[in-house]
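Quick one:
INPUT:
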């Protein structure tokens, strides 16, 4: 993938689907995990460094009051 991304919009790739609790889980890895929708996976090339950045358009009040925070990346075996 030239510009890997995950987001709420469908262009240029499918939108990420929310989980049952209204959170969104994004998976990083060289291969798309079984059972994970395309919009919830970002391809990472083996042996290459990566970084995380987020952009928010029209964030809601909890973002500004710091009631909501972006969680840390967790390793999924």
């Amino acid at each position: 993938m030239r510009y890997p991304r995950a987001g709420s919009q469908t262009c240029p790739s499918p939108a990420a689907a929310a989980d049952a609790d209204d959170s969104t889980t994004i998976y990083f890895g060289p291969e798309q995990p079984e059972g994970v929708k395309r919009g919830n996976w970002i391809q990472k090339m083996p042996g290459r460094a990566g970084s995380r950045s987020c952009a928010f358009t029209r964030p809601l009040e909890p973002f500004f009051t710091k009631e909501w925070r972006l969680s840390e990346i967790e390793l999924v075996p």
